[in-house]
Each structure stands twice: as C-alpha cells, then as structure tokens.
Amino acid sequence: MNMKIILLAALSVSFVACLSEADTKVPAEGGIDRATVLNDSANYTSIQWLDSIQDMGKIREGQKLEVTFRMKNTGTKPLIVQSVNASCGCTVPSKPEEPVMPGAEASVKAVFDSQGRSGVNHKTITVVTNTVGTQSHVLEFNVEVIGSTEGPKASTPQPVKPGI
C-alpha cells in the first residue's frame, strides 16, 4: 500500500512538470518566441548601423538632448533588440519593442540630461541583439555642454609670464 502511494505521487509530480514545461514555449506577439530567437544561432541575423558614432555639437547645461541611432536589418531573420544600457544614469536609452523584419529600419533612441554635466561628454550605449558575429553593439555620442551663466563661475588660471 505504501509503495502504491509513493508511485502515485511520483507520477503526479511528473505529469504536472510536463504540463508546466509545455506552457513556457508560448510564442510572443507576431508568433516569434523571443527567448528561442535570442538563444538559437539559426535565428541570428545581420545588422547595419547607419550612424553608430555621432557628434552632437554644443548644448546649454540643463537642456535634454535626444540622440537617434538608426539601424537596418540586413539579414533574412527578424532582428530582436534584447536590451539597451547606457554608460551612466544621465542617459536613458529606449529600444524598438517589436522585431525588425528583414530589410526594415528601426532606431535606438537616448535622452541625455545635461544638468551638472558641463564640458565635453562622451557617452556610450550597449545594444544586445540576435546578430551573427557579435550580439553586443556599442553606440557612441559626444556633446559639449556649455555651463550655465548663473551661479558661481569657475576660476580661470592666469597665464604665467616666462622670466619673472
């Protein structure tokens, strides 16, 4: 009798485990299972960055700057942007939520907050995708932030006259 209860319990656990595993393979919107695509090299595609390094010129301190990096899916499979991460908290990136179909273009955007960032700023954004070769792509932008005219001014060093 004791053996029958143990056998019945083992079968019940196995049955429930099989049902749980079947539910995890549900495709995402558009019939594309993102987890499968990102982990299966047969579903990798190619990407072309149309502007991966940008010089944004000058802005005034306190302004917010939006930077757009354009990309094109040059492969034959849907391109999925898994994540985007900025090099610091002053830059907030965003990514396309839907897969980028072959031949289509999309963009990664970033908003840079220049408050307290006077001087030349070099920022990077790391993008993780399902691409052949490397899945990690680094985007860069430079911007010079001109300090505000309000508040204390930094002292300017005086030139030294030689021979005195």
UniProtKB/TrEMBL annotation:
Which branch of life, at top level?
Answer: Bacteria
Asked if the Swiss-Prot or TrEMBL record annotates the protein with the keyword Signal, the reply is yes
Keyword terms of this UniProt record: Signal
Q: Pfam families from the entry? A: DUF1573
**Signal peptide coordinates:** 1-22
Name by which UniProt lists this protein? DUF1573 domain-containing protein
